[in-house]
Structure prediction request, 780 residues.
Amino acid sequence: MSHLVEYDDASDEVRAVYDDIRATRQTDYINNFWKALANHPPTLRRTWETIKEVMIAPGELDPLTRELIYIAVSVTNGCEYCIASHTAAARSKGMSETVLGEVLAIVATANTTNRLANGYRVPVDEQFKT
Amino acid sequence: MSHLVEYDDASDEVRAVYDDIRATRQTDYINNFWKALANHPPTLRRTWETIKEVMIAPGELDPLTRELIYIAVSVTNGCEYCIASHTAAARSKGMSETVLGEVLAIVATANTTNRLANGYRVPVDEQFKT
Amino acid sequence: MSHLVEYDDASDEVRAVYDDIRATRQTDYINNFWKALANHPPTLRRTWETIKEVMIAPGELDPLTRELIYIAVSVTNGCEYCIASHTAAARSKGMSETVLGEVLAIVATANTTNRLANGYRVPVDEQFKT
Amino acid sequence: MSHLVEYDDASDEVRAVYDDIRATRQTDYINNFWKALANHPPTLRRTWETIKEVMIAPGELDPLTRELIYIAVSVTNGCEYCIASHTAAARSKGMSETVLGEVLAIVATANTTNRLANGYRVPVDEQFKT
Amino acid sequence: MSHLVEYDDASDEVRAVYDDIRATRQTDYINNFWKALANHPPTLRRTWETIKEVMIAPGELDPLTRELIYIAVSVTNGCEYCIASHTAAARSKGMSETVLGEVLAIVATANTTNRLANGYRVPVDEQFKT
Amino acid sequence: MSHLVEYDDASDEVRAVYDDIRATRQTDYINNFWKALANHPPTLRRTWETIKEVMIAPGELDPLTRELIYIAVSVTNGCEYCIASHTAAARSKGMSETVLGEVLAIVATANTTNRLANGYRVPVDEQFKT
Prediction:
């Protein structure tokens, strides 16, 4: 595993991101993902800015729906860390066990039909091309 | 590409599924995916029943949110047919260009952080394990 | 797309592989995959040798079963060329439409349960660890 | 990890599936996958019914071949739980170490050629299109 | 396919990005990827800024090596557009047919060993854990 | 996990490969990957020969660049063993923390744009088709 950069050992550049994470999320806790990214400060900064824009800034999708989409991708990719952290995030935003069940059922079904469409080499219907 | 089974050439078993698709969706159009699956009638029946349960039956998630999750999986897997058909389905359920943009932005971001978590081999935080 | 190296334009090194493909498969036809790999002769030679060992040389698995496994991987990866060529190869070795249907049903199901196992973060049972 | 639903704590709906798993497999052991799926009973029921149809009901493919195809998909997706459980299932159906070796060699080779076909952007031969 | 936003029909926000792409790359040509992303201007802006930082700004890796890594990912994911565009970009930065062959050979080999490591469930050596 | 074949318990065929690994790498250490592959000696031999040709034999790409490409694939596939072993190999060939950061930033970015290209169904530009 990667070295995790703690706040006390961090450069000013890294601390500025950590401070913004803490202020934005209103918690002192910095999770391991950010401490690992701090090994390459430009990636830490850019990734956090992207997450803020995509997951936190106002938009048409509510925060819980965004987390459900995030879970769908992470489960499809089999990323253990991301499944664990975004399942936790979704729960904190109100996801019930039933909603998680419905999301995973859709993810499972989509992974099935993705392969059936590939395996049968289904031509795209004209009406879906536009 | 696979042979596509048209209604007039279909067995009674396949026609029963086609009839149910038409009745459920209130359209005469059967898209190519189902016509390809009809080459193996048990797969046609089972896949349609699953789709009905997961995507159409009442649940906590509304129909549009389900389609957005479906798109997220299909884009991550790179399934051209599924992206085309479910983007069309989502549009018919009211997805705007902005919502599509927000969904794809989340999908793109999740694919990025999935790899950063893997690449830095980030250990799962204790609080995410439960 | 890549340049396809035809026999008449090929180096001796490439021709030797083409000749062996023809002799082994008892056909004059060289499919596009090999003509593309001929852009890097060491890859052409190594890949053909591997295919001969893994797919053609005597072993415990019969030739059709090997093709079915090949299809399963190619469908999961969504490789259009490989699905097309190995579906054709399997048909030439006797795969019926029903067997293809059964294979794709297993591939579809495995892709579903792979995601459910990930999504629910199911711990491996002790008895499966050995 | 997910909460695992034990038989004694399960609803009648879940117990009915567990009972069917036990009767079908002629063992008392319910593996963790099903105990995790029991968090969303419709997914538990539907997934078990699918597995019964696809993996256990009579068909043209024998039970061991089905497991080998399952392993091929699970290895390609990198699903640790599924690799572990289906390798165990295949062994119980008679898979030798040599057969596992041959299967993994095909899976490895197919993953190689899938990428070479993509990387060289090989056009599908006309004869493979039908 | 998505609507492609041409310069003449673009908003000021989109034009600013297009102008920067043109200035940075010293060409008038805007490729389709950016014209599609322009359907969601924040994604266009953020993706271009990221590409500039990661692929163009000075760093320890030279521009051609960066393109080779990009190709490796795109081939592994089977993204046709990205393979085509980054193969072209790498050629314009001096990639020979032989170097492409070497890159694809490594990509093919890594995809093979990734599956063998998964399939044999190889435990990580202690010395690789730090 | 698989049984790991130690040198003292290995057949002559396996020992010959182990001896070549030791001689080529100038170390006595045989890592677990090879000990697992030794369960199927033809796979052990073929995989090692491929690795020698692709990763060690002289070519236009230097040894460190090859490892960086290997890491890019392994991170994209989420293969824990391969990420760990090739990160170690790259470090031993001189990879700094900054270079790892730059590689992972490219991998992350490519995974993002791969999905945006798919999700927006971007048509390949004519000039990228040749």
About this structure: Residues 59-130 of chain D form a domain with the AhpD-like fold (CATH 1.20.1290.10). Chain D touches chain A through nine residues (CB under 8 Å). The longest helix of chain D spans residues 97-119. Chain D has seven helices and no strands.
